[in-house]
Write a structure and sequence with these properties.
The structure is a homodimer. Chain A contains five helices and three strands; from the N terminus they run ααβααββα. The first copy, chain A, has about 110 residues and is of the alpha+beta class. In chain A, strands 1-3-2 form a three-stranded antiparallel sheet. In chain A, a hairpin with a 2-residue loop joins β2 and β3. In chain A, α3 crosses α4. Chains A and B meet through α1, α2 and α5 of A and α1, α2 and α5 of B. Chain B binds a DNA duplex (30 and 30 nucleotides) through α4.
DNA sequence: CAAATATATGTGTATATATGAATATATCGC
DNA sequence: GCGATATATTCATATATACACATATATTTG
C-alpha cells in the first residue's frame, strides 16, 4: 500500500504546485499576501476581468490555497498559508539565479 | 515598461512552478536530490518507461531545473538548485496541514 | 419583493500537456 | 566502421487548461 498511497500523495502535491503554475494566480496570491481582498478589488488592482479572477479563485479554493469569507456584500479572500509565498519566493530566486548564470555564460563567450 | 517586464518575469516564474506541477517530475526531482542519476537509473528506480523519463528531463532542463553531464556512456542528471526541494517540501507541508485541518473539521461534525 | 451590486458559472474555442508505442540518434568499445 | 547500449524524438491521441463573452446566482438595501 506504500506505493499506492505515495502516488496519491504525490498527485496531491503536484496539484498544489499546479495551483502556482499560472501567471494570473501568482499575481493573485502575492496580492492576497499583502492583505485579504475581495473579488472586485483583485479584479481592479490586477486589471483582470472579474470572471477570470473568480475562476482562478475557484482553482485556488479547491486546492485549499485561499479561503473565502463573506463580509456583508462582499466575499473576502484570504491566503491560506504564508508558506505558499515562501515557496513562490524560493522559486523566484531560483529563476533569477538561473537567468544570471545564463547571462554570465553568454558574457564569457563574447 | 514596468508592467510589461513584470508580466514577463511572472510568466517565467509560472513556468518554473509548472515544472513542479507533475507527479512524475516531482518524483524525479526528489530522486535527484539524493544524488545525481542517469536516465536509466531514474527509469529503473522510479519504474517509469525510459522515454517518459527523457521527456520529463527535457522539460526540467529547458527550465534550468536540472542539468545533464556526460559520464562516459551515460548522461548523469543533477538537480540544479536545492531550493527546488525546499519549495517542494514547503508545499508538501502546506498540503499536509490542509488535509489535517479538513479531517479535523469532519471529525468535529461527527 | 425589486433593484442594485458582487460573485460565480456555462459555452465555445484555442492551446497545452501527458503518455504509449515505435523509432531515431548518439556514444563507446572493439 | 560495426554492434551494443544509452538517450532522445516522432506520432497519435486523450485529457486538461486558459480565456473571452454572455449569463446566472446570490446578497444587501430600500
Amino acid at each position: 500500500m506504500n506505493t499506492n498511497l505515495e502516488l496519491e500523495v504525490t498527485q496531491l502535491h503536484a496539484e498544489i504546485c499546479a495551483g502556482l503554475a499560472d501567471p494570473n494566480r501568482i499575481l493573485i496570491l502575492y496580492e492576497l499576501s499583502q492583505s485579504p481582498r475581495n473579488v472586485t478589488e483583485l479584479s481592479t488592482n490586477l486589471k483582470m476581468p472579474q470572471p477570470l479572477v473568480s475562476r482562478h479563485l475557484k482553482i485556488l479554493r479547491e486546492r485549499g490555497m485561499v479561503f473565502p469569507n463573506r463580509k456583508g456584500t462582499v466575499i473576502e479572500y484570504t491566503l491560506a498559508d504564508d508558506r505558499l509565498i515562501q515557496a513562490l519566493d524560493l522559486l523566484r530566486a531560483v529563476m533569477r539565479d538561473g537567468l544570471t548564470k545564463r547571462a554570465e555564460l553568454i558574457e564569457a563567450l563574447a
